[in-house]
Amino acid sequence: MSLSISNIAFDDSNYDEYIDYILSIGIKNIEVAPYKHFKTWKIEEINSDYFKKNNLNVVSTQGTFFNIDINLFNDPQQFIKHFKKVININELLGCNYTVFGSPSVRKVENDSISKRDYDFFNNIINSLSNDKVQIGIELNPKIYNCNFFYEIQQINNLHFNKNILFHFDTGCIYSTGACINKTFIDYKSLIKNIHISEPGLNNLLHPVIEHRRFANILTNNNFNGNISLEMKQQKLDDFKRSVDVFINIYKDLI
Question: What does the angle CA 177 – CA 178 – CA 180 come to, to the nearest 5 degrees?
Answer without folding.
Answer: 120
